[in-house]
Design goal:
Length: 179
């Protein structure tokens, strides 16, 4: 799980993430009459994310910054023009608050997923119990059906024997009558 890191007092192009100089980024984008969406879309970055990098000093990943601002002439050699090297205390506090909030949100989501997972296991266990009961009921029904058919067969056989006996006794009576 991620742990909260302290926001640094100084950033450089060697860092994996850093705050951007919003005014420089805006000039690059507005100078070409582009929108945040037009700049971010080819790189798979939303306009909202770019807005957060520029206006809210959200830490921007170096790799994504190069992809987004590459078509605007930014590369490894001049990337330092976009990096806010020494964010002021207020900006650092904002960044720290956002980072802590994001990490807290991740922890809550993971806890919820864990709870959901436990709930899913409980549901599966109950479902298995229900299925076992259904199997038991089906076995009982099959036994009852088999017993019913056995009883029906027994009744049929007994009826046949009785009918034969009756036919036999009728034959005897008829032969007695014939004499």
């Amino acid at each position: 799980m991620r742990e909260s890191q302290k926001i640094k007092e100084e950033y450089s192009t060697l860092d994996n993430v850093f705050p951007l100089k919003g005014d420089v980024a805006k000039l690059l984008i507005n100078g070409r009459n582009l929108t945040y969406k037009e700049v971010g879309e080819p790189a798979g970055v939303t306009a909202h994310t770019i807005s957060n990098w520029i206006n809210n000093y959200t830490l921007a990943p170096k790799r994504k910054v190069l992809i987004v601002f590459g078509p605007l002439g930014v590369n490894e050699d001049n990337l330092d023009t976009l990096v806010l090297k020494r964010p002021g205390k207020e900006v650092r506090q904002k960044l720290q608050k956002k980072r802590d909030s994001a990490i807290e949100s991740i922890k809550k989501r993971q806890k919820q997923e864990s709870t959901d997972s436990v709930n899913n296991v409980e549901i599966l266990n109950k479902l298995n119990q229900v299925l076992e009961k259904i199997d038991d009921l089906m076995d009982g029904i099959q036994k009852a059906i088999k017993s019913h058919f056995n009883n029906q067969e027994l009744i049929y056989n007994n009826t046949e024997e009785i009918l034969k006996e009756l036919d036999g006794s009728n034959d005897d009576e008829e032969s007695d009558d014939d004499e």
